[in-house]
Amino acid sequence: MLPSDLQACLFDMDGVLTDTAAVHAAAWKEMFDGFLREWSRREGVPFVPFDPATDYAPYVDGKRREDGTRSFLESRGIRLPEGGPGDPPDVESVHGLGSRKNALVLELLDRRGVTVFEDAVGFLRAVRARGMRTAVVSSSANTVQVLEVAGLTDLFDARVDGVTAQERDLPGKPAPDMFLAGAAALNVPPDRAAVLEDALSGVAAGRAGRFALVVGVDRVGGGHGAALLAEGADVVVDDLGELLEER
Predict the structure, then answer these.
(1) Which of 135, 132, 147, 56 is nearest to 101 (CA)?
(2) d(Cα 228, Cα 110) in Å, to the nearest integer?
(3) Which end of the chain is less enclosed by CB atoms within 10 A, N or C?
(4) Residue 45 is part of which domain span?
(5) What global pTM score does this model have?
(6) Comparison of pLDDT for 131 and 106, the residue scoring more
(7) Alpha-carbon span 165 to 24, nearest angstrom
(8) HSE-up of 15 (CA within 13 Å, CB side)?
């Protein structure tokens, strides 16, 4: 199912390579619920918790921490000071809440470890055996650590992640800039590269970057595949091995 002239594959990490999307969803919920309880008490408004089923995909999935934090708060009509990247977890700012969420992610990863999707490892090895170059393009600032723990580091020629985006001031997904930077790092034009994403924002980024193929990876079901197609995925699979099958 892969175009014959494809030269590279760009992979999101959480939910495509590793089963860490659930860890991020749990961390977002714990962080936001703690903040929202305090906000409702202080402002005298009802407490409405973060709902992973309805809030995760549209507001935070696949986005940089500060973008996801800001997006969800705006959905609740809440505005906080931006703060800065150095804000600690106890500061009530966009960056401070992002730091709080990141601390929870690291705690959960330390406790649960990292589960790798075996179909992704098989697909990675297969496309590299065909001579394709590979890059990981993730909004996570913990990409290096997760790849090392998962044993996937050596399967990538380049990495563009949350740290890279901050250092180079790259807009996060759904803007295409991070994927375009990944293709540039491989010295491959977008029309010769495929994007593999499980997040709606990531699929939108791949479509905006005019990549040769945008693959939606549906690990959760429940209508997510249809949402990925609606966002612009060329094809949706729940096992990356399907992409290697002859048509």
Answers:
(1) 56
(2) 31
(3) C
(4) 22-112
(5) 0.80
(6) 131
(7) 19
(8) 30
Asked whether residue 85 falls in the same domain as residue 102, the answer is: yes
Catalytic residues: 12, 14
pLDDT tens digits, residue range 2-41? 999 999 999 999 999 998 878 888 999 999 999 999 999 9
The verdict on residue 137 lying in a domain is yes
Given a cut of 80, is residue 247 above it in pLDDT? no
Q: Is residue 176 part of a domain?
A: yes
Q: How far is CA 162 from the centre of its chain?
A: 10
Class of residue 54 by CB neighbours under 10 A (exposed 0-12, middle 13-18, buried 19+): exposed
Distances (CA, A) of 221 to 11, 117, 177, 216: 20, 16, 28, 12
Structural domain tally of the chain?
2
Both 64 and 86 in one domain: the answer is yes
DSSP string, 65-123: HHHHHHHHHHHTT-------TT--TTS-SHHHHHHHHHHHHHHHHHHH---B-HHHHHH
pLDDT, tens digit, for every residue of 188-209? 999 999 999 999 999 999 999 9
Examine the pLDDT at 143 and tell me if it is beyond 60.
yes
